[in-house]
Amino acid sequence: MPLFGGKHKTPQELVRNLKEALTYLASLNDREEKKAAKASDDVSKTLLAIKNMLYGSVDQDPQTEVNTQLAQEMYSSEMLLLLTENLPKIDFEGKKDVSQIFSNLLRRKIGTRMPTVDHICQRPRILKILMDGYKNQEVALNCGQMLRECCRHEDLARRLLYSEDFYKLFKYVEVSTFDIASDAFSTFKDLLTRHKILCAEFLEANYDKVFIDHYHELLISDNYVTQRQALKLLGELLLDRHNFTTMTRYISNPDNLKLMMNMLRSKSRNIQFEAFHVFKVFVANPNKPKPILEILLRNKERLVDFLSKFHNDRSEDEQFNDEKAYLIKQIKELKPQEEH
Amino acid sequence: MERKAGMHRPLVTYDLNPSQYELHAVIGTCCNGAGTVHLARHLPTQKLLAVKKIHLDAQMVDMKYLEHEVLMNRTMSHVNIVSCHCTFVHDNHLWIILPLMAFGSSSDLLAAHFSEGLPEAAIAFILYEVLKGLEYLHSKGVIHRSVRASHILISAEGHVCLSGLRFAYSMLQEGQRSKIVHDFPENFVNSLLWSSPELLGQSFAGYNTKTDIYSVGITACELGNGGVPFADMPVTQMLLEKMEGCTPQLIDMQTMPELQQATPGAHGEESLPFQRTFSQHFKNFVEVCLSPDPKNRPTASSLLQHSFFKQIRRKSGMESLVSLLHPVTPISDVGSVPTQDAEADLNDITANLQSVSVETHLWDF
User: Fold this and answer.
1) Could you tell me the pTM of the whole model?
2) E strands along chain B, which residues?
3) Cβ distance of B7 and A176 shorter than 8 Å
4) What is this model's ipTM?
5) Looking at the complex, does the CB of residue B75 fall below 8 Å from at least one CB of chain A?
6) B21-100 is classed in which CATH architecture?
7) Overall fold of domain B104-259+273-325
8) Do A40 and B7 touch (CB under 8 A)?
């Protein structure tokens, strides 16, 4: 077997080497810089060899049998936990290789079984470490990538959504570093949209905690990007028919309507536009609760006047113009509720 | 040489706060006009920097692409790939803090002085560095897809960096390595001239990292001739010519002998255009890069061994690049570029005031 001869190592050897080097690297303290550099080199070389075995190379396809053995070794040596725990100590390229190894393994399938997903389900600590990764600049983007890989699997997404750690994301999407905040937002959005039924149940069950305690903060964030992305996602969530119950609750609250009406007048055109897509749901609701109806009635003339001048340069956007015309008509025809 | 980021703490930290950066003259634009690149001073260290400031509320700004470019910059670390110090959002602007590349891009050099092309020795040095950057990207499974003179930046010391990672594409996706790519980049119009026939053809056969090698060949012609091949024809004709295997050439006394007889005598030899002879090594380099069949194009790694690069002086390469670029000089101080007119700032302020004070539609809650 040429693959195992010569300088090629077997999966067992690779994983054993990695474990030894990683454990050694983890045991060193900050003052042992030289030893750490050497150990870190060993770790990264082995990680690269493992990545190339899993992915194949330009002229060598990955080999199913070898990869099965490799995966087995990774599971039995608790390598995924070890790698995530020690990620900050691994060098720059090594960290990226960890993330790519992780994403290849997570997609492993045996019949209908997904062995890596099961493995991580039994070790929720891995998810916790990944989520906390956003706190550390050095590993944030690598952890983000691995988290989104986890989000693809409903079982893991459920664990992430229903853990207290989920609410930390509301902080991470607002951090000052643009690249980390954007990455955290992608993860946040994936978690809230990827598995429709799971997401709908989660939002319904945790409506107050999500929307009142947390999401509101994002909508009034000082960070332009956070505010804009949160508003856009809110529109998408409310318009998704799976989230009907959540939508109904959201559009019954007059405070939410006031917020959107103010955002229609934001100095940012993009925020005005995203706010329009939430505002329209309040107006289109055929069963408007009394407080909502009253606000709309009180501002009837102003709204009609405002909307007829709103983003008139978007003449090429047919759907928007239709919706705007519909809203103006609806608002014009609003009548006070009759007392029963 | 890969940078071992994370092994040592950086000596200088860049705060995510606009007050740390004093903006001076605009030295470039980006994002179809929605962004400006400023010469700036980092106040804590007094060092010069470049600050890219992008107006995120502008219509032509696609956040998805910006995020991709920043992410690519963040995840690629090599001395020949441009790196950013930090990124943050202030008001509705994205600030990207970058090292100052004081000579600008290699296409700025053509515009500033070398309208008929750079000296061959300078091109050799520049492309050698570019290929080292590409070798790194390709080893990570990333295709750059937009190699061109304007994406090659040069520092005051003659250090060469590849930028423009907006179109970079990773072949390692979804847990697999793809051998061919079919993705056609969006908003790619400005880079079509440099693209390989297989990328432009969008055929079933797809393309791979060799598409970048073709772009290196076109860039070599651009730097040698002072203009991009095919630039003088409509896009469709350019496509056809490339598909039919037409290979652009370096223009010199041998490839264009008619230039010799053009206008002899009258104004002396110096007034003749393209009075030069490029080496056979350079011509061969361009030819192999532009092989119509991607299989016949060498990899970035093997091109680094090409005889064209024998002329580079290993030790003093950077210094000799700087001297070869004479009389073009790098930006050396904030005073060396005309300062930004105060009026623009004033306009900003009044625009802000207006949007605040026009409160004709106060809602009645």
Assistant:
1) 0.90
2) 21-30, 35-42, 47-55, 86-90, 93-99, 104-105, 142-143, 152-154, 160-162, 169-170, 172-173, 176-177
3) no
4) 0.89
5) yes
6) 2-Layer Sandwich (3.30)
7) Transferase(Phosphotransferase); domain 1 (1.10.510)
8) yes
